[in-house]
Amino acid sequence: MRRKSDRFKYVARSCKEILDIYGEQEDGIYYLTTTNGMKYQTFCDMTTAGGGWTLVASVHENSIYGRCTVGDRWSSQQGNNPNPPGGDGNWSNRNTFGVVESATSDDYKNPGYYDIVAKDMSVWHVPNNFPMEHWNLAAILRYHTDNSFLRLYGGNLFSLFKQFPVRYSVGSCSDRGPAVPIVYDHGDRESTRNLYGPRSRNEFDPGFISFRAINNERAAMAICSGVKPRGCNTEHYCIGGTGYFHKDQCGDFPSFDWDRLGREQGWSASKEMTESAVLLFYR
Amino acid sequence: MRRKSDRFKYVARSCKEILDIYGEQEDGIYYLTTTNGMKYQTFCDMTTAGGGWTLVASVHENSIYGRCTVGDRWSSQQGNNPNPPGGDGNWSNRNTFGVVESATSDDYKNPGYYDIVAKDMSVWHVPNNFPMEHWNLAAILRYHTDNSFLRLYGGNLFSLFKQFPVRYSVGSCSDRGPAVPIVYDHGDRESTRNLYGPRSRNEFDPGFISFRAINNERAAMAICSGVKPRGCNTEHYCIGGTGYFHKDQCGDFPSFDWDRLGREQGWSASKEMTESAVLLFYR
Amino acid sequence: MRRKSDRFKYVARSCKEILDIYGEQEDGIYYLTTTNGMKYQTFCDMTTAGGGWTLVASVHENSIYGRCTVGDRWSSQQGNNPNPPGGDGNWSNRNTFGVVESATSDDYKNPGYYDIVAKDMSVWHVPNNFPMEHWNLAAILRYHTDNSFLRLYGGNLFSLFKQFPVRYSVGSCSDRGPAVPIVYDHGDRESTRNLYGPRSRNEFDPGFISFRAINNERAAMAICSGVKPRGCNTEHYCIGGTGYFHKDQCGDFPSFDWDRLGREQGWSASKEMTESAVLLFYR
């Protein structure tokens, strides 16, 4: 364990710099330093596709029964309310919460989310409450992008969502943000399809990560993980959102339980999807 | 103060290791490191019964008038609701909250709660908002176990409560978890009895710490500090709990104010008990 | 960036000590250490009036539509309720929350708030979500005191508010805490007046910072920034507060939107004031 302690002396803004400058190739927790000199701890994936991936956030549904109440930090903790239209606004502000080892037990957002200037993203869907040492193996879906799409949007999600606000009534269903093709690290298009409800499968294409979806009722969602929407019932397969959803579907996983929780029937996502945290990495 | 700064270079998983490996015998704040390499600060009691006790959590009632609202992290922050039956689930997940110096001003849980593999527990009841330098002397009750009971339950409360879930409707009043005899460091059986309400005193035996009590209405509580229940009205003298309690008694100290707050009449716990935080240590 | 890393080895209780003992004159993030040895990071202003100012807190209105709900940490997160009369009590307890880089995106309180023994205060009103490197230039109002008034009240706000509790029904409108003259670093008396609503301007004098104001309905507020109240409608121009306000005006900026948000009409504060975080420094 002594070697891990020495990691504190590194001054790096991202796991990519830890890999490139200090030559560390071991997955695990490192200290990073923001542009302004604030230190924080997070997990580095030094394995996937050459390594250098920084965990910057996780989206965790604490209770599908609590509708935009405490714990729904990626939508709203203020209840289902069109004022303010951006909900808690965490997709595009500098607020942070949680700690790295709790990333599968609670929502997590560290300063890397807004501080790191990155090219690509990686996403892991890890069953709730799994310990860090098993995240990789336990994940039900893992993929990354490799076309440097973040360069077009300011280098991170903080900037991307300034351009594509996650905001109630900001536009119509056709006003979506980018949809980016993905490379699978665990899973494939078919397994991605099956993570969502049977009716949802008719209105998306697997093999993508999509940003800022808007549904029929003009609620906005931040990320559709693994899929590109064709239809407008995105509340059943996209996560994060504004502070207002029709029929009180408000929450970090807004309406994943439409036809009963985890039954994988109608519009309901699978139980394994609903009970997994979505870990977001940059490189 | 310079010497305290050097403490950062220690790599130890618990205060016991700080004592055994580095020979530190001074009570105070040290950095610990989890198995996965995450660093955090907590308080080490290096005095009681040979020292080496790590503060891992505190249970603090922020408002007896707020029923499973914000701040009731050891029961539920989602309101009094049988769904989900485990409330916020913090007794058996990897979520953490609070910082060490605020342990008597707010709920506190650090990574040691799930990371340290321990044998015994120590508990301090410290009046709310007391500063760390006075915790020991200000405590109204301090005790520890010395029979290595945690070995039977996975080495910590995280594991113990996996075996004995703190969950609404998980069983009947007789399905209690373990009751472990205690050694008093401040106080005795008589003073323990008097911390709880007159009517409560008829249904517990002092001189124990008990885990996972269940009441008449099938609500579960995590810890009965200082006592072993004989009866089933445990909501008046046990703490932490599920997300649902009969008659909206929901909260970290569920029904300590049944016959008015702090009046020490009927089922009401004493004012000093209700206004003290419960600090949990491992060794 | 390497030099910033070395800052971790400093052992100082305040930015004044960082300046005096270690000779650091650069604005930025430093590690401080409390009397009890707990380390934390915060921002030091090493420029204003000789430097040595420690950021200890920020008051940020997350949603003027959420009335003492989640995020209203300087009043109450338990709803508009006269029980408990002190709300969440954070003006006079050891609870802490937030991190330094998020000080303009969320409420912030670090251990310096209660740990540092200071003489004077400095206040910056910074538009929400501005990054740290622009706080100084972006501020719409900046001022400090220079008469060592904190010496009379225990050296910090934690002590001051023990003497002048922020508590519902603690007294009448005339039972105010101290009003201290200020020196402007950006702005002046005229610009201060214009930050508040036209009707508010008739009942305060600019050029002061005031503590513990009480309104007609006996609600208490913590700070009137830039002004000394003469009247009793302080809910329109003072911040922080108890857990109870008449007509559900409860919140960190209790009734800044009385005559519609940010319209600068009637009692409503200006939009720039309502959408700025109030950063509190000690020296």
Automatic annotation (TrEMBL), chains A, B, C:
GO terms for molecular function: metal ion binding; oligosaccharide binding. Keywords: Calcium, Disulfide bond, Lectin, Metal-binding. Residues 6-56 form the Fibrinogen C-terminal domain. PROSITE patterns: FIBRINOGEN_C_2. GO terms for cellular component: extracellular space. InterPro entries: Fibrinogen-like_C, Fibrinogen_a/b/g_C_1, Fibrinogen_a/b/g_C_dom. It holds the Pfam family Fibrinogen_C. Residues 74-95 are annotated as: Disordered. PANTHER family: INTELECTIN, INTELECTIN-1A-RELATED. This is Intelectin 1. It comes from Fundulus heteroclitus.
